[in-house]
Every structure is written in structure tokens, then in C-alpha cells.
Write a structure and sequence with these properties.
The protein has helices at residues 28-32, 91-95, 105-131, 148-151, 168-181, 192-200; strands spanning 34-37, 42-47, 74-79, 81-90, 157-159, 165-167, 187-190, 210-212, 227-230, 235-240, 248-252, 257-268, 275-288, 294-298. By secondary structure, the chain is α+β, with helices and mostly antiparallel strands. A 6-stranded mixed sheet has the order 5-14-11-7-10-9. The chain has a 4-stranded mixed sheet with strand order 1-12-13-4. The protein has a two-stranded antiparallel sheet with strand order 2-3.
């Protein structure tokens, strides 16, 4: 019988050339939001409302005008937040041969660490856009941006009527509020435990339009994989995100959300240690151009 012998197995590193970097899926808000420019640490904008169309707006010839003061525009704002992620190589790493056989650690490994830091920054910004709470900067406290929930108009924040039960009407009412205000909602974010429940509301088998929330498993629906909820006025993509506030559904129009950047910089060799350092710094905030372009529903 022939025997195949392969000597010198020590040191073979085939699998070390493959690197799976997880995490890109959890950046739904960051990816969907438009990108803009801020010009002040407290970024401000204006919003206004219009009344529904009035088909009876008709007057006779020669009618007099009865003037009244129009509504005042609302002044909105959000604080910018400085995000920082570091990439660094020690002197030993620079002089060493990497596991994948690349001898140019200064170039290739630092480039990889820089790209990783940039991706991590996007994840951090996305988390703040989703659940951030604003904080006014002081000499000792950093400024923090308010997230989508904090920027949403209080009239569009509500709790479902029945404890433990999620109905089609609950979500549809939030979408209707946005439609009536002039928005075009397209995105819904919830915790993974709720994704299967919400998707099930579209189905025709019993119990249609009413699902017991507690019956769903936490593994229902994977992060980053979108399904749909079909409302009476709009269809929205459902994204699961475990960082979402507990028992909370957030809906918004992507075109009316924007990531406003005040400054972005790569600070090289700023880290005082024996090696090479690079800091990825981004200062930005979330802008919701109209607070009624989003809705938040909390399970009772």
C-alpha cells in the first residue's frame, strides 16, 4: 500500500492569509443617512409645518383680507461629538515578520489598523445616531450627540395600547403620523427579539394583526438582514439591532436624516510610545431635518 508522507509541517500558515473582520452589518443608520457639513459644535437648523390641503379655500370677488400672524419656525439643534479610535504599531512589530509573511509591517499592518479604526469609528457613530443622549460640553465633559429617539417629536413618541401584544395598527399609526407630516418613512429598527414579530404582522394566517411579543425568541431575525412591514401608507425595511433601546421600535425617513461632520482628521505619530501611532478623529452629529420625520413606539 502506498503511503503519502509530507514532511516539514511545522511553520505552514495557509489559513493565516484569511482574515474575517466582523461588524459591517451594524451600521444601518450610518449607511442610510446623508452626509453633510456642520459649522459649529452646536449644529442648528430650522423646521416648520404646513396645514393639510384645504379644498374649500375659496373667496368671492372683491373679498377683503383678514391678516393674522403666521407660525414661528422651530429652531432645532444637536451637539457634535468627537469620536476617536487609535491605530498603533510597536517598534518590535515594525521590525518583525508578520504571520502572513509580509515583511513591510510599517506599511501594510499600519494601513490595516487604520482601516479597522475607521470602520470602528463608523460603528461607534452609528450607535450614537441610534441611541445617543446629548450632553452639553464643558471644560471637563465631552459633548455628545443626541440620537434619533431624542430628536423625534414628542407627538410621534407613544406606547402601544395592550401590554405584551403588538398589533399591525400600532406600527401603522406611527407611519401614518409621519406620512401626514409630509415624510416618506422607509426604515424601521428594532431589537432582534422583535424582528420576527413585526415581520409576522404581514402574514395572513392567525393571529393576523396581533402577535404576542413574549412568544418570539431572541434569535429571530439576524442583524443587517432586512425584511418588510407593509403599512397602509408606507412600506418600511425592518433591521434588527441589539443596541436599540429595549422594547422600542424606531422608524424614520433616511432622506431626512443626515450625519453632519464638523471636522475629520488623521493625527499621525501623536501617541507617545516606542513605535508608530495614528489617531482617527471625527467630530459630527446627527441631524433630523424635521422632528416628525421619525416615530418611536415603546412596547407597554
Amino acid at each position: 500500500m502506498a503511503v503519502l508522507i509530507t514532511p516539514n509541517q511545522i511553520g505552514l500558515r495557509e489559513d493565516l492569509t484569511t482574515l474575517d473582520l466582523m461588524g459591517d452589518k451594524l451600521t444601518v443608520m450610518y449607511n442610510k443617512a446623508k452626509k453633510g457639513v456642520a459649522i459649529n459644535p452646536h449644529h442648528e437648523w430650522l423646521e416648520d409645518n404646513m396645514a393639510p390641503g384645504n379644498a374649500s379655500n375659496a373667496y368671492v370677488q372683491g373679498a377683503t383680507f383678514n391678516f393674522s400672524t403666521t407660525d414661528t419656525k422651530q429652531r432645532m439643534g444637536n451637539w457634535t461629538q468627537i469620536f476617536q479610535n487609535l491605530a498603533a504599531l510597536s517598534r518590535t512589530s515594525i521590525q518583525s515578520k508578520l504571520a502572513n509573511g509580509n515583511n513591510f509591517a510599517v506599511v501594510s499592518e499600519l494601513t490595516f489598523q487604520k482601516e479597522k479604526a475607521m470602520r470602528q469609528t463608523a460603528r461607534d457613530i452609528d450607535a450614537a445616531m441610534l441611541t445617543g443622549t446629548s450632553q452639553v460640553p464643558t471644560a471637563t465633559l465631552p459633548g455628545k450627540m443626541g440620537g434619533i429617539i431624542q430628536l423625534t417629536n414628542t407627538a410621534n413618541q407613544y406606547t402601544n395600547a395592550t401590554t405584551g401584544v403588538l398589533a399591525w395598527d400600532d406600527i401603522d399609526s406611527g407611519l401614518t403620523k409621519m406620512i401626514e407630516a409630509g415624510a416618506d418613512p422607509d426604515t424601521l429598527i428594532c431589537q432582534p427579539v422583535m424582528k420576527g414579530t413585526i415581520a409576522k404582522l404581514n402574514r395572513t394566517e392567525a393571529p393576523y394583526q396581533t402577535v404576542v411579543y413574549a412568544d418570539q425568541k431572541a434569535t429571530k431575525g439576524l442583524e443587517g438582514h432586512a425584511t418588510f412591514f407593509e403599512g397602509s401608507n408606507a412600506s418600511v425595511e425592518i433591521y434588527a439591532d441589539p443596541r436599540q433601546a429595549a422594547n422600542t421600535i424606531t422608524m424614520f425617513e433616511a432622506d431626512k436624516t443626515s450625519l453632519e461632520v464638523l471636522g475629520r482628521a488623521n493625527v499621525e505619530n501623536s501617541i507617545q510610545f516606542d513605535g508608530i501611532g495614528l489617531a482617527i478623529v471625527t467630530e459630527c452629529c446627527l441631524k433630523l431635518t424635521h422632528s416628525k420625520a421619525a416615530a418611536v413606539m415603546v412596547m407597554a
